[in-house]
Write a structure and sequence with these properties.
Low-confidence stretches: none
Structural class: alpha/beta
Shape: globular
Mean pLDDT: 95
Number of strands: 24
Largest sheet: 7 strands, mixed
Strand content: 25-35%
Helix content: 25-40%
Radius of gyration: 24 Å
Length: about 450
């Protein structure tokens, strides 16, 4: 039996970074990944990187004003090929980087627990068991498949991974789920030329976002021709009897049944921690549907077994997985001061053309937390840089504590907001007053200089 100082299950951001770090520290490391298509993890292969490539390609494409759908098909196929080429190179680079470290062995198989220290690697026809002093679980998350009659047996139904492998642009696309993933794909395919309908079971989309921002997004989507069906339940789906390449969806709206027909369907109702097939019970590891249970230092209830990234539940961002690595490295070799409790300010962005970005509390959340607040709202059309970029859609909102003048949160729906939000996040982390950004000298013309006006409360 091969013995290792550390076994890492999963080639995601946290796992691969930890493998390289430990290998260079002299640890003998085993890194197990069940799919060669997932070297580098979710972000590189099926998440943030490929989707953002398609976001950029679709935004370039929309200015070409092609009226012929066949021409749109050609451009869509080119974009997919561009995405595939970039991802292939990134995947290869990730593999080669770790494979070049003498102390790191990469196993192409599926890992599961035999005991607390023994991991079985299943290669399909064969398997082997290896031993590890420390074990790190980094298996990520996977798509939630809802219980919809006929879903699993219907052709041309995709999840957020498989839809990025389409070579043909659907004329009519239904997206089940009005969350962040669904909205990103709605924006992408609308830019490429698909007729997109979002089917959302809740009474509205983006219920956690600021109402001013939510209404602005809905208005923009409507102007772009994206149809949002809120308060709509999907009852069943099947391939159309007269055309097996079409998908017939039965929906319920206000108690009435209706039928809609689409070329393709994207199911985007969320992702859940990927704990299946790990045989966690063999090691006595506590877990639930929300993920593997860990303490603030990412340790499970079993000594020397840790969980990093999406598999432990919580926010599913690659930069959280990277920060998980920092916490583990700090526990093993540092001063043991880092933990999930020291990680307080986490911004995020949704790339929906223009981008939606948020950090901290919304107005509603701040009031619910007992703060007396003041707010300000600024239209993107008032920002010179937005005019230069010819992207005046959007609205920006900030929330500030009235007494202390401390920044509590911000929601930015505007071009380049994914960059500007980081400035606000830094100010919040450093507990700066709103006047800090109001009086800051920014270069001109930039989107960040809008913070001078946004924090003019």
């Amino acid at each position: 039996m091969k013995k290792y100082d550390a076994i890492i299950i999963g080639f995601g951001k946290g796992g691969k970074t930890l493998a390289g770090f430990l290998g260079n520290k002299g640890y003998k490391v085993a890194l197990i990944e069940k799919s060669k298509d997932m070297y580098g993890g979710t972000c590189i292969n099926v998440g943030c990187i490929p989707t953002k490539i398609l976001v950029e390609e679709s935004q370039k494409f929309k200015y070409k004003n092609l009226l012929n759908f066949e021409s749109k098909q050609v451009e869509f196929k080119k974009a997919i090929e561009t995405k595939d080429t970039i991802i292939s190179k990134l995947r290869e680079a990730n593999y080669n980087k770790l494979n070049s470290i003498q102390n790191v062995d990469i196993f192409d198989g599926e890992g599961s627990f035999e005991t607390e220290n023994k991991i079985k690697i299943n290669y399909g026809e064969t398997s082997e068991v290896i031993f590890g002093d420390k074990i790190f679980i980094n298996t990520g998350a996977k798509t939630v498949v809802p219980s919809i009659q006929g879903l699993r047996n219907t052709k041309n139904v995709y999840d957020s991974t498989s839809i990025m492998n389409l070579k043909t642009l659907p004329k009519k696309l239904a997206i089940i789920g009005g969350g962040y993933i669904g909205l990103e794909f709605a924006s992408i395919f609308n830019n490429f030329g698909s007729e997109v309908s979002i089917i959302e079971g809740n009474k509205d989309i983006l219920l956690r976002e600021e109402p001013e921002v939510r209404e602005e997004i809905k208005g923009d989507f409507s102007k772009r021709g994206i149809n949002i069906l809120s308060g709509t339940k999907v009852i069943s789906m099947k391939n159309n009897d007269s055309d097996q390449n079409q998908v017939e969806i039965s929906i319920e709206v206000d108690g009435k049944l209706e039928v809609a027909i689409f070329d393709s369907v994207l199911v985007a109702v969320g992702r859940k921690p990927n704990v299946e097939n790990l045989s966690l019970e063999n090691a006595g590891i506590n877990y639930s549907d929300r993920g593997i249970e860990v303490n603030e230092f990412l340790e499970t209830n079993i000594k020397n077994i840790y969980a990093l990234g999406d598999v432990k539940g919580g926010l599913q961002f690659t930069y959280i997985s990277l920060d998980d690595f920092r916490i583990v490295a700090n526990q093993l070799f540092g001063d043991k001061t880092l933990s999930t409790k020291t990680r307080k300010v986490i911004p995020y962005s949704v790339f929906i053309s223009p981008t939606l970005s948020k950090v901290g509390l919304s107005e509603k959340e701040a009031i619910e937390n007992g703060y007396e607040i003041k707010t300000n709202v600024l239209k993107s059309a008032q920002i010179p840089r937005a005019k230069i970029l010819q992207e005046e859609r959007g609205v920006l909102k900030v929330v500030v504590e009235k007494e202390s003048d401390k920044i509590l949160g911000a929601t930015l729906y505007s071009v380049e907001s994914s960059e500007v939000i980081n400035i606000i996040a830094l100010a919040i982390k450093e507990e700066k007053k709103s006047s800090y950004l109001k009086d800051f000298i920014f270069t001109h013309p930039t989107m960040s200089e809008a913070l001078n006006d946004l924090f003019l409360l």
